[in-house]
User: Fold Nucleoside diphosphate kinase from Mesobacillus campisalis.
Amino acid sequence: MQRTFIMVKPDGVNRGLIGEIIKRFEQKGFALLNAELMTIDRSKAEYHYMEHQEKPFFGELVDFITSGPVFAMVWEGENIIEVSRLMIGKTSPTEAMPGTIRGDFAFCKEENVIHGSDSLQSAEREIENFFGLLKRHRLEDDFPFEDR
Ligand code: RTP
Ligand code: MG
Assistant:
């Protein structure tokens, strides 16, 4: 059984899509383990998106994800990391298939409704970042930001 971190981004919260997204994960048979509406600070956002820190869009990505409340969740299920990425759909609205969450609801690459972890390692790191205490030992070596 795997766990993953799923987050409704500020545009999804603002558009009232939390219920729709929870419904899809419940219908798929996944189990909700934790959830919280929260507004995150820049250091948590920077840590969340650390793989993109050298990208030209990093600043705007952090601006966006800290611009309003997000709905952070931990879900559990068989192969959930891979399956949830399929349910979420591709990053860009021109590539996200109808039937996926982004395919049905997102029209913009920069604001695309939902995030899902892309690997076991990122799921572990992201759950720790948002909900704390789990697997803390894996975080110490590669943490590049101050004042988290
Ligand atoms: P996410 O991490 O948010 O679930 O999205 P993802 O895996 O599908 O895409 P990723 O490559 O990890 O990119 C993270 C977020 O950065 C924004 N982005 N903007 N302006 C651009 O060219 C650009 N490229 C990526 C997207 O909002 C993406 O969700
Ligand atoms: Mg990603």
Observations:
- The chain has one domain: 2-138.
- Residues 52, 57, 61, 91, 109-110, 112, 115-116, 118 surround ribavirin triphosphate (ligand 1) (CB under 6 Å).
